[in-house]
């Protein structure tokens, strides 16, 4: 699957970072899912190749404005750009009430069905290649994490067996691997005799605001990548006295404790500047986390795209 | 006064044009007013030198989302950036209801007072240098135009009289013009004997969506500049069968009929491209209007800034 960051700032947008939104796209095809939809998400999407017509569902982590105020405009624009297929919204109940109030007070006409699922009652949902689960976090308002599990079939050709029969690499191998039976020198070669299928799955957990990463211990089991907020460094978190958010070290400790292979931090307080020499730099968040966590650590910027490939390897890709 | 365009696209944003918002700033000082607040207005403001702390009032023309969906995020960000002073919102009643519903459903905390005025009942309001009036337009929902009248004192020094007394140009002239009395070669020169004050006023009308420009005949009397939507050219308007909007020629005819000196068109359908050679180009809107209207015609782009100076001259300025 692909994870594309559309906004990585906490609370308010900056010139370099918009407020929260993350697009998760299936490995095959064009189906994608949007986790959170801060104001300006539809504008950010104009700079990607994602189409609102291929959007399968919107998942909102919590009701705070920097995670949902782009929803009304995005729903309106999807309608104006011709969307007719129903759209699923998985979100806290307050979001459904807010969208309904917005439809009423601003005469918002949506020319396709909205299917709301209250996350409070969600067990799991299957959509396309994904199985999606949710779990509760700890924040000033109810906040949730979403887990995307993508199951894919991996096909292996028994090349040793083919070689032992004197069939060397070439078009026959390709046809057999693609599931075709082949007539070979008067012999019928059945694909199923040479091909093995393995089900592989990749798992990504994408979180809303959360002050207790350890709540995710079970939910992140066997997970390939965790996307978690790191609003502050520890010193600034203590000074800010902010309740409900995590600092880099806290998330890093949790990631280390569960031997997580890939950690992507996001949702940075606007006080952290990109200049490494700044008195309050995003590099301080990186340093605090990397001193504790020795897996692969990434700090997301807007429009960063990460590909989670079959063997669970995460790599940064071009947009 | 200054008129700064923060969004010039109709309905949906494009990569070059955001949805509607216009900042109107007093000639002196930093006080400014926001007419409409489409989604992403706060992000556009980050690219200007306008501060949310100096925002005096927000005026919404009508309840459609492309004119108001940025309101909740902007109010939230003003609070997070430390605003404490009350903020006036002049808008159709539905906007007040929507903001209240948003506060409720998304736990939006605003740490300063909001003073709502329903535009339906507005006669006039004075704020800083401006006197503001509203009038009803014709659209699919109730829509309004706002008129900003700025009164300024212009001071003229009677230089002929000074010269006739043998007082030539120099520091004495400057002091007298600034209202200071001056001891000059044993004589007391009183500022009031050499200075005349004239009250000058400039008027700008900024409109919401409107299919009947002629409704503005009285309201635009003696007005220096009209900012009006021109969503379409006439041919496309006829094809689109859209109700509630104006095409360029219609606005141009009205502007010509009232001998308006300056007309700024905005709110262009996203189908109009900036390339003059495109099959559907913004230049077609310009051509249609300029064939009818011979005053000074401008087509607004995002971040265009227009200065209306004392003698009613409008000039395009740097942002």
Automatic annotation (TrEMBL), chains A, B:
Cofactors needed by this protein, per the record, are:
Zn(2+)
Domain of life from the UniProt record: Bacteria
Which residues are listed for Zn(2+) 2 binding in this entry?
A: 66-67, 209, 267
Q: Where does Zn(2+) 1 bind?
A: 62, 64, 139, 209
Keywords of the record, alphabetical order, are: Endonuclease, Hydrolase, Metal-binding, Nuclease, tRNA processing, Zinc
Q: Name one Pfam family in it.
A: Anti-Pycsar_Apyc1
* A GO MF label: 3'-tRNA processing endoribonuclease activity
The EC number of this protein is: 3.1.26.11
* Reactions accelerated catalytically: Endonucleolytic cleavage of RNA, removing extra 3' nucleotides from tRNA precursor, generating 3' termini of tRNAs. A 3'-hydroxy group is left at the tRNA terminus and a 5'-phosphoryl group is left at the trailer molecule
Q: What is the UniProt remark on how the cofactor binds and its stoichiometry?
A: Binds 2 Zn(2+) ions.
Read off the InterPro entries from this record. Answer: RibonucZ/Hydroxyglut_hydro, RNase_Z/BN
Instruction: Name the residues annotated as catalytic in the UniProt entry.
Output: 66
Indicate the family of this protein. Belongs to the RNase Z family.
NCBIfam families this protein is in? PRK00055.1-3
Report quaternary structure and partners.
Homodimer.
Q: Its biological function?
A: Zinc phosphodiesterase, which displays some tRNA 3'-processing endonuclease activity. Probably involved in tRNA maturation, by removing a 3'-trailer from precursor tRNA.
Quote the protein name from its UniProt record.
Answer: Ribonuclease Z
Native organism is Vibrio quintilis
